Amino acid sequence: MRFVIVTGMSGAGRGTALKILEDAGYFCVDNLPVTLAGKFAELVYSSTSEISKVALGLDIRSGKTMDELASMLEKLTMAGYQYEILFLDASDDVLVKRYKETRRNHPLALDGRVIEGIAEERKKLSFLKKQADYIIDTSTLLTRELKQELDKIFVQNKDFKNLVITVLSFGFKYGIPNDSDLVFDVRFLPNPYYYEELRNLTGNDKEVQDFVMGFEVSHRFLDKLIDMIQFLIPNYVLEGKNQLVISIGCTGGKHRSVTLANRLYERLRENADYAVRIEHRDIGKDAVVKAH
Q: How do residues 181-199 score in pLDDT, each as one tens digit?
């Protein structure tokens, strides 16, 4: 029996995660009152049950007090029922944006500001996050990327280290990404912009990639960068970090930064212990600015 409790911050993707697990063959139940969750566990663990994979969705709406949930989990443990906790999280800014886009009310801020409800919810769920077996930050994840992560954990049964790495290229003239954890400046590399045949191409084009990586300094920088990041990652994991944004910038975010970000992404993907995604924030802004 695999019994998964899917919980986390409201708006972080709990419902989406349950749908993904349901498609993967899990029997899913959502918004069951906490007082009934224990009975539900007894039923699915009974010898007469033919269900082998269960996902139970619980959030701040499942009970008036989180004390009930803490007590229920303790009873499940004492009864010998094995369970795993999947905690979906996201940054406050992202959660506020999602609530504004859907025009939904936060369950703890019916008469107040969304950000206040989020803060209160974080306090109430802090004990649950500490107990979680898996923490996935969905702030920058696409649905298909979340599906890939859940598939690794709950279908392929691979080890999971609660870390999603985003490699982000950007242009310094458009500002440093404010969610960056690590920022690297590659403006010291030769610039394809000064070559007319390369100017309108990007770091996604082979011609630009060959130019940027045609210098020994580019390879030396990439090797040293990868060596440092591979040293940092396990230490970040030990500290409980679950989201790492590595930003690589050049002047316009179109040539050098894109090339190096792509190479870093390719090298990091060789390690299956964590999820890696790539984003080119400013790759098309130069053309847009010129058009106006």
A: 999 999 999 999 999 999 9
Q: 40 and 29 in contact (C-beta within 8 Å)?
A: yes
Neighbours of 86 (CB within 10 A): 24
* Overall size of the chain counted in residues: 292
Give Cα separations from 261 to 35, 82, 88, 93, 135 (angstroms): 49, 42, 27, 25, 26
Q: For residues 15 and 2, give the distance between their C-alpha atoms in angstroms, rounded to a whole number.
A: 19
Query: Which sign does the torsion angle of CA 39, 41, 44, 48 carry?
Result: negative
Considering only CA atoms, which of 279, 278, 282 is closest in space to residue 253? 282
- Sign (positive or negative) of CA dihedral 232, 92, 154, 4: positive
For residue 255, what are the CA distances in angstroms to 15, 29, 195, 213, 248? 39, 48, 12, 11, 11
Contact assessment for residue 186 and residue 260, using Cβ atoms and an 8 Å cutoff:
yes
Could you read off the pLDDT of 127-159 as tens digits, one per residue? 888 888 888 989 888 898 899 889 888 888 766
C-alpha span between 277 and 268 (Å, rounded): 10
The model carries a pTM of 0.64
Domains plus CATH for the chain? Answer: 2-154 (3.40.50.300), 164-291 (no CATH)
- What's the rounded Cα separation, in Å, for the pair 157 and 140? 24
The vertex-132 CA angle with 130 and 135, nearest 5°, equals 100
DSSP conformation letters of 259-276:
HHHHHHHHHHTT-TTSEE
Q: Cα–Cα distance between 92 and 115 in angstroms, integer?
A: 7
SS3 state at 248: strand
End-to-end CA distance of the chain: 60
